[in-house]
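From: lab user (bench 3)
To: helpdesk
Subject: output format question, protein + magnesium ion

Hello, I'm new to running complex predictions and I'm not sure whether the block I got back is the full result or only part of it. Here's what I submitted:
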Amino acid sequence: MTKWWDVRNEPVDASHPSIIEAAKLLQSGDTVAFPTETVYGLGGDARNDTAVARIFAAKGRPQDNPLIVHIGDQRQLDQLVVACDEVSTRLMDVFWPGPLTIILPVQPYAISPLATAGLPTVAIRMPDHPIALALLQAAQCPVVAPSANLSGRPSPTCAEHVLNDLQGKIGGIVDGGPAKVGIESTVVEVVERVVHILRPGAVTAEQIEAALRVTTTDLNYNVSVRELAENGLEVEGLRIYRKQIDQTDFVPKSPGMKYTHYAPSGTMTIVRSDSPDRAADWIREQLRLAEERGERTGVLTFNEHETWYEADHVLPCGSINDVTSIAQRLYDTLRQFDDAEVTCIFTDCWLSGGLGGAVMNRLQKAAGYRIAHV
Ligand code: TXA
Ligand code: MG
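Helpdesk reply: Thanks, we reran it on our side. This is the complete output you should expect:
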């Protein structure tokens, strides 16, 4: 049985009875899902092999994809990492608590080797959410927490998403209402004072550069190209986005980069064009063909374009002018396509820069990098 604590409308701290109960479950080696500002996480005691193994098993997560350790107090770092360079320390000072995960050299034997997938480094973050912080304080241990979804599905942005994926497979769920950010934390690793962005998120390259006066690099671009090539995305009738980069020896910096993520079960195609009208015409034609093939069709679009399309499910994911709300609603919208068993999805959404870039990173992964230029 999976326990359920509803603390949505209550002030919560480490002495709240539900938090104490949830913390006890964590201390006993069980798993508890809880809200963070980004998405819901599936927590377990980072030091406990059994707890960590339970997380991998519940999610069906590949063993070589390491987990993020969540801390509620910066002093916990001393026991977790061997050293912390100056730039990483400044990142913590500026962005913690918040949606930024930092990769650091792990202190041997500090946490279960299952959690780091045997890597010499560990990913650490301090979430900016009162319930997460209360639970971390009450549990009094470092807590590993991947997103609380079945591996490959969109991350959960509310407690019901967690229940749909993991009911009966985990110890409990703390319901704290919908997540504020909606996409996962930015993951960075500092190498020789350069901040490498392994996964874009709500803390943007622009913010990091402005706050620290350092250089950032985005490693995701290269990964996209590699994934494209590996998946051989030659889709008939579509011209696929492809740039020439020699990727033969590419080893992903972050193991999570190489897995398909966030994907609805239907086939999704992102449609790009200089002309929104041309994109819409092309999508309408593809929808007609898909319907002829007997597919159940869907369109993911901006609120402003909702009336442009006729499909089994036209789902608006927010205003073109409000990227914050698009990030918040993206995963819920992708899940709605699954609930409706949509098999063929088109989207005319394209955003760039800052949080928009992070949203497009998730959308491109959801589409398996299937991008049609029309
Ligand atoms: O916002 C978030 O980060 C959420 C909430 C729950 O905190 N957590 C989350 O965890 O997204 P997860 O497990 O779904 O993603 C962790 C990412 C993966 O891409 C993984 O490969 C990467 O972090 N990662 C973990 N440890 C790493 C390491 N030592 N080196 C490089 N990448 C690492
Ligand atoms: Mg995840």
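A quick orientation on your result: Residues 222-252 have pLDDT under 50 and may be disordered. Let us know if anything else is unclear.
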